């Protein structure tokens, strides 16, 4: 927490605010976090050890720890991603016994006997994460995937899959397999802003069997 507060009052933070007024003044991030200037972050968001790509946005009251997030991602409010864990294979799950600094406010352990930090979460590009979802540490979410609201994601999510539930399971895929393969190869999210703006019509209609080839040609 001290790192978040220290960075909040730093010159680095002031410069970031001047570069991007779409980042709420009431959000927090540490020195290990990198945020694109083409993002929007609402109030009461906390980012630690994160990276956030172009045109991705995060809704209010979301907590993200140790995650790489791609471009064009839509992360709703009250989302938790990569939060610290507890020692479930020890006699007690309480961090009081294993970590000098812990949530209880008391310190019994002489050193850290358990590492609560989650493995890095990797979220691809064009991913939509619904409100009040939880993404466990170490998860990889593929490009174009959708996580339904109130889901708990405990396993990797394939590209363009729609998942939901507790724990989250694949409900269906957004497009046929051949279209997904072409989109993965195309990687339109890596194109320049001007390129995408010139071809914006491809993004303004539903994808169907009848028009998928034409849309791929426009983007390609």
- Sketch the topology as an H/E string, one letter per element: HHEEEEEEEEEEEEEEEEHHH
Largest sheet: 9 strands, parallel
Tally of helical segments: 5
CATH architectural grouping of the largest domain: 3 Solenoid
Low-confidence stretches: none
Query: Mean pLDDT, nearest integer?
Result: 94
CATH class bucket of the largest domain: Mainly Beta
Q: Write down how many β-strands occur, each being a DSSP E stretch of 2 or more residues.
A: 16
Oligomer: single chain
Whole-number count of domains = 2
What characteristic shape results from the CA principal axes?
globular
Can you describe this structure?
The protein is an alpha/beta fold and 220 residues long. It has 2 domains: 2-83 and 118-174, UDP N-Acetylglucosamine Acyltransferase, domain 1 (3 Solenoid); 175-220, no CATH class. The chain has 5 helices and 16 strands. It has helices at 2-8, 11-19, 177-186, 193-198, 212-219, and strands spanning 28-29, 34-35, 40-41, 46-52, 57-58, 63-69, 74-75, 80-81, 121-123, 128-129, 134-135, 140-141, 146-147, 152-153, 161-164, 169-173. The strands form 2 sheets. Strands 1, 2, 4, 6, 8, 9, 11, 12 and 14 form a 9-stranded parallel β-sheet that branches. A 7-stranded mixed β-sheet has the order 3-5-7-10-13-15-16, with no helix packed on it. Strand 15 (161-164) and strand 16 form a beta hairpin. The longest helix is centred in the last third of the chain and has 10 residues, at 177-186.
